[in-house]
């Protein structure tokens, strides 16, 4: 039996008015189309409700955080709706001036119920709604998302709804005035990257930031980003002082620190994380530095693999340096979600951070493993109160995103970070453009705040001049609850520019909904006609 999120009421007076205006004279074909559309929408609503409840029933035992239960149920309804291709249905609904279901994320059942109600009125089927039972559930929608964002990311500035996160450079440990300027420019959250520096430097950053907040008269959340099982180039071995790789050239990739056969392999990359190469088959892709270099495995050796360069970001080749990331899109490495270093870093993060982020999470099992370690370190009650940031940077994580969200948000406050660098390396740039939107939609359905990161205004932050492409990218980033800037020589100017972009964007767009403010172009055009 139906359980509408918003109870329907028969409006006989409205029906009489409609008939008095000639609605009963609408062509029979159109009446039949409306009735058919009404029946189809009612059946869709019933199926979404039934399938969503079944999915939620599977999740419910693992959800111990009451604040997430209704959000999880809305997510289940959204997934039930989006497993269908409803593009033709959208066109038919738009024809009659009805919602085309394009903005249902935060309140799925309410949207479906509203359309069914309006179709019933239009098709003269209002009596069919008399048997709709009422439901006590009231889905909070975007208000719930705003509440979650405020709790995790802090109060948004008065003039914009999207927060700005900034990665702190080592300078932040010694230059308090620098942090004051970042705050005055618009930084709302400070990111400490635990892949760099050490706990002594991080603690000095925290101390300086706390002092800077008092000087600037502004609060700022502190986010510790745990490095995770990132596979990196730990060392580069070459006879050249500044080794470079061009298309067609080869390098040797190994986990054996003693391997030094430069006679046969002029450039050797060492990565301690690659303790075995069983997962790397011939022709397996190898990505370096978020796609700056792409290669393929052409030969396997006992000490590692030979990789031939297929693409580089520059025709003259790429300078090879340590600490650059390695990605293997077609290979799955069974690495623990937390390294020994990560566990030590967590002890600091739990004490100092407002949010703690985790990298390369692949699915719900990784989330459970993280929560177990947090419980061991902080105790059950304290661990459940720690806000988590799960970074989505692999295709595997995207494929398991709903289960991942339920596992994390079912026990902890949660935000999702779209880490587009590694995700692009894993999925490719074409797929990334689609995936980042899908992540936004699913997170909105679950009322989970999103942090948009990686290469936002990168040229501006590094060189002081933005590109046209990154201006458009930053505009789209306004759909998230937070946008992250990386460190660079012009990060202060980058914050100012991003602040202006976000303010402008929110006047024109709210999530997927266009905001129709008055256009100067339209006003000027009308003034000309009046003259």
Write the layout of secondary structure elements.
Layout: H1 12-20, H2 28-59, H3 69-82, H4 87-95, H5 108-123, H6 142-153, E1 163-167, H7 176-185, E2 189-193, H8 199-216, E3 221-226, E4 235-238, E5 244-245, E6 250-254, E7 267-270, E8 285-288, E9 293-301, E10 304-312, E11 318-319, E12 326-327, H9 340-352, E13 355-358, H10 364-378, H11 380-384, E14 388-392, H12 395-399, H13 401-409, E15 414-419, H14 420-427, H15 429-445, E16 450-453, H16 458-463, H17 468-477, E17 482-485, H18 491-508, E18 509-510, E19 513-514, H19 520-530
Parallel strand pairs: 1-2, 1-17, 2-3, 3-13, 6-7, 13-14, 14-15, 15-16, 16-17
Antiparallel strand pairs: 4-7, 5-11, 6-10, 8-9, 8-12, 9-10, 18-19
Helix pairs in contact: 2-3, 2-5, 3-15, 7-8, 9-10, 10-13, 14-15, 17-18
GO molecular function, one term: magnesium ion binding
Organism: Trichococcus ilyis
Pfam family, one: PK
């Amino acid at each position: 039996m139906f359980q509408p999120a918003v109870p329907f009421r028969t409006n006989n007076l409205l029906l009489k008015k409609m008939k008095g205006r000639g609605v009963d004279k609408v062509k029979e074909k159109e009446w039949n189309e409306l009735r058919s559309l009404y029946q189809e929408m009612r059946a869709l609503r019933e199926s979404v409700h039934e399938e969503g409840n079944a999915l939620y029933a599977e999740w419910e035992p693992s959800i111990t955080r009451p604040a997430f239960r209704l959000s999880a149920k809305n997510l289940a309804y959204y997934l039930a709706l989006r497993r269908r291709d409803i593009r033709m249905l959208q066109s038919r609904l738009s024809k009659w001036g009805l919602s085309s279901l394009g903005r249902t994320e935060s309140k799925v059942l309410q949207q479906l119920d509203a359309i069914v109600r309006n179709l019933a009125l239009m098709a003269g089927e209002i009596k069919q709604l008399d048997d709709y039972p009422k439901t006590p559930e009231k889905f909070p929608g975007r208000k719930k998302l705003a509440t979650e964002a405020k709790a995790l990311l802090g109060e948004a500035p008065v003039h914009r709804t999207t927060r700005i996160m900034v990665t702190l450079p080592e300078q932040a440990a010694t230059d308090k005035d620098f942090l004051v300027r970042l705050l005055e420019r618009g930084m709302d959250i400070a990111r400490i990257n635990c892949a760099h520096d050490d706990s002594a430097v991080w603690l000095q950053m925290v101390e300086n930031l706390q002092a800077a907040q008092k000087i600037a008269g502004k609060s700022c959340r502190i986010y510790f980003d745990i490095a995770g099982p990132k596979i990196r180039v730990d060392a580069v071995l070459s006879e050249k002082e500044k080794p470079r790789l061009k298309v067609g050239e080869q390098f040797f990739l190994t986990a054996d620190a003693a391997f030094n056969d430069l006679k046969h392999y002029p450039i050797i990359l060492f990565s301690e994380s690659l303790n075995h190469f069983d997962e790397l088959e011939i022709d397996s892709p190898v990505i370096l530095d978020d796609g700056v270099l792409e290669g393929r495995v052409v030969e396997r050796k006992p000490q590692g693999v030979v990789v031939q360069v297929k693409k580089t970001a520059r025709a003259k080749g790429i300078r090879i340096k340590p600490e650059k990331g390695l990605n293997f899109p077609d290979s799955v490495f069974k690495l623990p979600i937390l390294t020994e270093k990560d566990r030590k870093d967590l002890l600091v993060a739990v004490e100092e951070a407002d949010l703690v982020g985790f990298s390369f999470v692949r699915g719900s099992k990784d989330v459970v493993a993280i929560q177990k370690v947090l419980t061991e370190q902080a105790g059950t009650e304290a661990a459940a109160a720690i806000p988590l940031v799960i970074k989505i940077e692999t295709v595997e994580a995207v494929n398991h995103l709903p289960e991942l969200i339920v596992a994390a948000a079912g026990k902890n406050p949660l935000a999702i970070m779209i880490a587009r660098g590694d995700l692009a390396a894993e999925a490719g740039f074409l797929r990334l453009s689609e995936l980042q939107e899908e992540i936004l939609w699913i997170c909105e359905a679950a009322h989970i705040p999103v942090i948009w990161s990686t290469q936002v205004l990168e040229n501006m932050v590094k060189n002081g001049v933005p590109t046209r492409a990154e201006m458009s990218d930053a505009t789209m980033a306004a759909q998230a609850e937070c946008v992250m800037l990386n460190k660079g020589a012009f990060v202060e100017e980058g914050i100012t520019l991003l602040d202006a972009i976000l303010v402008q964007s929110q006047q024109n767009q709210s999530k997927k909904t266009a905001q129709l403010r008055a256009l100067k172009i339209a006003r000027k055009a009308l003034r000309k006609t009046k003259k």
